Amino acid sequence: MRIRTVAPVAAVAAVAALALAGCVDNSTPSSSSTSSASDVKKDDALAKQLPQSIKDSGKIVVGMDNTYPPNEFKDDNQQPVGWEVDLANAIAAKLGVKTSFAIAKFDNIIPSITGGKDDYGMSSFTDTTEREQQVDFVNYYSAGILWAAQKGKNIDPDNACGLKVAVQSTTYEDTDEVPAKSKKCTDAGKPAIQALRYDTQDDATNAVVLGKADALSADSPVTLYAISKADGKLEAAGKTFDEAPYGLPVKKGSELGPLLQKTVQALIDDGTYKKILDKWGVADGAVDKAEINAASKG
């Protein structure tokens, strides 16, 4: 998980301090999200399969932590933007409803889904077998992990024992990737990797820019975006590795899961999906087929 497209990196910490909570009704979306949803035609056959509660409300509630550019972040009006925002709006348009983004901390989204508060999540969730014990995932993208460091530092992710690595709290990089690397270090009698955990990707990026951390670890599209916005101060450390599927978390066994799978597949088939990814420069992770719980299918 996851400054602003117009903010210099040095100002990121101040921006990240503006925490949001609650719902953002996207009935009147920003121009960037309107362009991707306005061309999507409603599929009546799919719309008929919506749960009655969503039909009655005319909106689908999507849990999101909008602090992970370019996937999902805030525009100048504090509204959610990004390629996943565009995709969520396209899904809603295909189903003939509006999107209501429930903005929350990343680690609160799955509990909101299992508790019935949110219909599904769209927040760069890596589908893992552990998370599949709580929710089902509708897979829609493939992302790897990519490290970044200050330019000229020559950091090697496979030889990072004793380094300080910035991560966003509760992301896969925080819970799985960096701890696994650190354990290899300590098992070999070397110093552990010190994970510096931040609430937002903005803060994690800023820690590297300011020299508080030796490197950052994040999903590949997020790291590349951070590098592009760092005024030449950051560079990729090594290459992308450990590619894994992103998934939309839905309540386990929910009728909404198969419907979202069909809807995402329809957007892939009609070209909307590729148009959105191309617009944001993240098409390298495109998939041809929307699946359910790809991690456990291995």
UniProtKB/TrEMBL annotation:
Record key words, sorted: Signal
Superkingdom classification of source: Bacteria
Record-annotated Solute-binding protein family 3/N-terminal domain positions: 59-284
Record Pfam families: SBP_bac_3
Signal peptide (UniProt feature, chain positions): 1-21
UniProt keyword annotation of Nucleotide-binding present: no
InterPro entries listed in its UniProt record: Solute-binding_3/MltF_N (IPR001638)
Protein name: ABC transporter substrate-binding protein
